[in-house]
Amino acid sequence: MEQKLSEKVKVIPPSGIRKFFDLVSEMEDAISLGVGEPDFDTPWNIREEGIYSLEKGKTFYTSNSGMLELRDEICKYLKRRFELDYDYKTETLVTVGGSEGIDLAFRALINPGDEVLIPEPCFVSYKPCAFLAGGKPVTIPLKEENEFRLTPEEVEQYVTDKTKILVLSFPNNPTGAIMDRDDLKKIAEVAIKHDLIVLSDEIYAELTYAQKHVSIASIEGMKERTIIINGFSKAYSMTGWRMGYAVGPKEVIAPMTKIHQYGIMCAPTTSQYAAIEAVKNSDSDVQEMRNAYNGRRKVMIEGFRRMGLECFEPLGAFYLFPSIKRTGLTSEEFANRLLKEEKVAVVPGTAFGDSGEGFIRCSYAYSIEDLKLAISRIEKFVSRLIK
Amino acid sequence: MRQEILGILEQNCKVTVDDLATILENPKEDIAKELSKLEKEQIICGYHTIINWDKTDIHKVTALIEVKVTPQRGQGFDKIAERIYRFKEVTAVYLMSGGFDLTVIIEGKTMKEVALFVGQKLAPLESVLSTATHFVLKKYKDHGIILEKNKKDERMAVTP
Q: With contacts defined as CB-CB under 8 Å, which chain B residues touch A32?
């Protein structure tokens, strides 16, 4: 049977995260800093709304694009939080998580051979999704000395006449890097100059510390060439509800909706009712979670710096991406030995692309007590490596 | 800084001064000073531990008592409230609006002990007009903490 499989699927490598966590699941007493999802329960008002919709028997399909009320509330939210103007009827699509939105955008836009610029380290889905859609992923290695921001020079270096899409993913998983308005203005100039479409994954937009998230679509001349992917998983701790959305020019949203309607039909109805409550009435819950992450973030950074590992200060998402170069180990060796010797699971930076070599990803979506215990174990391990 | 300290401690009083200093980006000395001020001003009145006694071998009985009283001239309800909250069995006293005046929460080892307290100490107080005792059968949530909540981390390693 294997020879009958799609050639494309055969060449996609398995995820580095999966491989590693198969090891973790077999180990008792291991502390994991590996999970990329919030540790908070979905706020009760949101869950209650989901339950209520079920009680009322609201269990039928919704329109393919998602419930009008939800799309309307999403657009009001984007205006309120990020100064973005979208028409809820024609420029908004409710998807099954942000991941579906990424896949749809690539499939709606890419013709065979089109190049997709993907700054790396990055979320592991972009490359396979672009490849499966028939595109050629081209990675741009981001540099720690630039605080893992993307510079216009880097884009210029990798752009060709075949480049169609530039993927932006800030706040970033795994580095926690963010881009401010000035950074984005410069990237926008390059995108306009080379007529690039920007796929901007803003799933961590609500999790920024010290400064507010800016979307590239809010910069002049960019709305018409940007597709924003966002969702409820990270901000509202709703990973299992699988609720995401895409907003962008109707010329792209319409074909994305076409693919979505044949493949998925519509996002789950219960989740859509819960999402309406989330986006309308949960700002204070988001603020509370953000504050908690921020406190943990500081404790973690302090811990890594104390043990002598360089740690760039992430201003977004809930990950730390410390450098382990001083230990002389590769990312994989570090993560494997740390798990075996001290029972702490972190993700090797290389799981997010080759440019993640020399780094590890540590999620701080855990209690302060767990984080401190993990830090003390990592410190013991590192002290044996750095004299 | 004050409000932030209170917010963090309300969630978790085990947070150390070192952690507070890191989280709030202030010197440890300043945090310690502020904490001590908050304690002196009795804004922080104590550091309490919430224990689910039902999960131990120690048996405790909690009762909520509705008490109607006669307020005293010049002192309102305060004097009688003080008479009541001084008893060591009493863990909380609240002045209420509505059908009765004071909510008194008491803890004892047995129902008999609670009954004796109400019958022999609380009800005979001169200002107390009537009492209605309700025994707590099970605590589900206390001080904002869900007691039966499953704390196990059920997140799975998913890819991506």
A: 157
- Cross-chain Cβ contact B157/A294 below 8 Å: no
Report the alpha-carbon distance of residue B138 to residue B140 in Å, rounded.
6
A297 in Cβ contact with A318 (< 8 Å): yes
CA nearest to A108, candidates A83, A91, A133, A89: A133
Joined together, the tokens standing for residue A387 give 């004299």
Task: Give residue ranges of B with CB < 8 Å to any A CB.
Answer: 7-8, 11-12, 14-15, 19, 22-23, 25, 153, 155-160
Q: Do A31 and A344 contact (CB within 8 A), yes or no?
A: yes
Picking from B8, B149, B154, B158 by the largest number of A CB atoms within 10 A of its own CB, the best residue to mutate is: B158
Say if A294 is an interface residue toward chain B (CB within 8 Å).
yes
pLDDT tens digits, residue range B70-111? 988 888 999 999 999 999 999 999 999 999 999 999 999 999
Could you read off the pLDDT of A250-302 as tens digits, one per residue? 999 999 999 999 999 999 999 999 999 999 999 999 999 999 999 999 999 99
Q: How much is the pTM?
A: 0.90
Q: Does B25 contact A15 at a Cβ distance shorter than 8 Å?
A: no
Question: Which among B157, B158, B160 is the nearest to A123, CB-wise?
Answer: B160
pLDDT band at B160 (very low <50, low <70, confident <90, very high): low
The burial class, CB within 10 Å (0-12 / 13-18 / 19+), for B154 is exposed
Q: Which residues of A touch B21 (CB under 8 A)?
A: none
* A79 residue type, one letter: K
Nearest CA in chain B to A372: B19
- ipTM surpasses 0.85: no
Residues of A in contact with B14 (CB under 8 A): 369
Is the confidence at residue A13, as pLDDT, over 90? no
CA dihedral B70, B72, B73, B75 (to 10 degrees): -140
- Residue from A337, A309, A278, A310 nearest A44 by CA: A278
Detail the DSSP E strand segments found in A142-203. Answer: 163-168, 197-201
Strands, E, within chain A: which ranges?
31-32, 92-96, 115-120, 136-141, 163-168, 197-201, 226-231, 243-247, 319-320, 344-345, 347-348, 360-363
Q: At what angle do helices B2-11 and B28-40 cross, to 10 degrees?
A: 80
The one-letter amino acid code at B8 reads: I
What pLDDT, in 10s, does the model give residues B18-37? Answer: 999 999 999 999 999 999 99
**Region A240-250 average pLDDT:** 98
Q: Are A346 and A362 in contact (CB under 8 A)?
A: yes
**Is A306 in CB contact (< 8 Å) with chain B?**
no
First to last CA, chain B: 39
